[in-house]
Specification:
Family: Belongs to the enoyl-CoA hydratase/isomerase family.
Number of domains: 2
Protein name: Short chain enoyl-CoA hydratase /enoyl-CoA hydratase
Mean pLDDT: 97
GO molecular function: catalytic activity
Oligomer: single chain
Radius of gyration: 19 Å
Distance between the termini: 31 Å
Strand order of the largest sheet: 1-2-3-5-7-10
CATH class of the largest domain: Alpha Beta
Organism: Paracoccus lutimaris
Helix content: 40-55%
Largest sheet: 6 strands, mixed
Pfam families: ECH_1 (PF00378)
CATH superfamily of the largest domain: 2-enoyl-CoA Hydratase, Chain A, domain 1
Shape: globular
CATH topology of the largest domain: 2-enoyl-CoA Hydratase, Chain A, domain 1
Low-confidence stretches: none
Bound molecules: ligand T3D
Order of helices and strands: EEHEEHEEHEEHHEHEHHHH
Number of strands: 10
């Protein structure tokens, strides 16, 4: 069993809840290792992961009672943060970050490592790092300027303001902000959609979008042709077309 996270599997959805609510789910060594372990050891039946927080926060970032002078920050990033982030980034199924409350520091960037971020309206995103004399890590300096542009990225990082969920959605930092009362239902419906969907296509969409970062149009057309060639041979494509023609809902198997 896990000590710092709560993991459950149901109906093709694996739910991983950060579970140190007394410190707003701050990340310590154990939690980083457990998130990586849970993400790399998903059941065969899992077709969507929901990463969320217990209590009123999503994650407050590095546990600051473990930090400070003398700590080898670079080693912690390389040996503990990188494997955790890689496990999310390279997950074999879509990952939803369900941001139930504040996401600060590496906790914000942990959420942004997911494929899709859904936040409760009362949640917020804080690049808190410069308040303690650090730079944003855990991938923040890569993902944030691409999502929101340089001016907003710079402002978020220099001023360490709390960016409310609605503004994060308006800026394109996250997919959607939903009223708190509807949050669980919306996350549940989105997770069900992904868990019952064409998993191979979802993973190829992720691959194509990531490849676009360094490609011009000609190179990206090659990526699309290669990936679409693979999709054309899937059962889910055959099923999707058959279901359309028969005017019924498709039954995707994920392959
Ligand atoms: O290895 C390395 O160090 C490098 C890696 C760095 C990665 C990083 O993530 S650096 C950034 C670390 N995170 C932060 O700087 C955020 C610190 N927390 C906050 O700014 C605020 O707590 C929040 C904005 C997250 C929430 O504010 P608020 O007012 O809603 O709650 P609070 O009262 O500040 O916090 C509630 C409790 O959680 C409180 O404990 P208490 O007083 O009830 O006993 C607080 O100390 C604790 N807590 C919050 N964040 C952390 C934490 N304890 C340890 N570590 C935390 N990060």
């Amino acid at each position: 069993g896990f000590q710092t996270i709560d993991v459950s599997h149901q109906d093709g959805i694996s739910r991983i809840a950060l579970n140190r609510p007394e410190v707003m789910n701050a990340l310590n060594s154990a939690m980083r290792a457990e998130i990586a372990a849970a993400m790399t050891d998903l059941p065969q039946t899992t077709r969507c992961v929901v990463l969320t927080g217990s209590g009123r926060a999503f994650c407050s970032g590095q546990d600051l009672t473990d930090a400070g002078a003398g700590l080898n920050v670079e080693r912690t990033l390389r040996e503990e943060y990188e494997p955790m982030l890689a496990a999310i980034h390279d997950a074999p199924v879509p990952v939803i970050a369900a941001v139930n409350g504040v996401a600060a520091g590496a906790g914000a960037n942990l959420a942004l490592a997911a494929d899709v971020v859904i936040a409760a309206e009362s949640a917020s995103f804080v690049q808190a790092f410069s308040r303690i004399g650090l730079i944003p890590d855990a991938g923040g300096t890569h993902i944030i300027p691409r999502a929101v542009g340089m001016a907003r990225a710079m402002g978020m990082m220099l001023f360490a303001d709390r960016v409310p969920a609605a503004k994060a959605a308006e800026w394109g930092l996250i997919w959607e902000a939903v009223p708190d009362a509807e949050f669980e239902a919306v996350v549940g419906a989105r997770a069900k959609w992904l868990a019952e969907g064409p998993t191979a296509a979802f993973m190829a969409i992720r691959e194509a979008l990531r490849a676009s970062d360094g490609n011009d149009m000609a190179a990206q057309l090659q990526v699309e042709a290669r990936l679409q060639g693979r999709m054309g041979a899937t059962r889910d494509f055959a099923e999707g077309v058959a279901a359309f023609l028969q005017k019924r809902a498709p039954q995707f198997q994920g392959r």
